[in-house]
Amino acid sequence: MPKGYWIVHVSVNDMENYPTYVAATQPAMEKYGAKFLVRGGDGKVREGQMRDRHVVIEFESYDRAVECYESEEYAPALALRKQYAETDLLIVTGAG
User: What is the pTM of this model?
Assistant: First the structure.
């Protein structure tokens, strides 16, 4: 079964409080077996627009990635993220 991924592009509006969101994700990330492949980091725009931060999170399956996003564990973190940042978040199926 192909793995599932969150591909996230973030523009942080409140850098002082954003770490609160990051900490709040921990219960969901642990429960759903998230593996961070990219978290922040430098980047260069080659096409389109770029946000401040980029995150790629791997899950054992697409269904598991969706379950995490829709979970009661992630809901409090999601509410915080919406306060502190503008985000594009995609959930995709991996190759293979």
Answer: 0.92
Beta bridge partners of 11: 86
Residue 68's nearest CA partner among 27, 15, 8 is 27
- What is the CATH classification number for the domain harbouring 38? 3.30.70.100
pLDDT at 45 (0 to 100): 85
The yes-or-no verdict on residue 79 having pLDDT over 80 is yes
Distances (CA, A) of 88 to 2, 13, 31, 49, 50: 22, 14, 23, 12, 11
Count of the separate structural domains present in the chain: 1
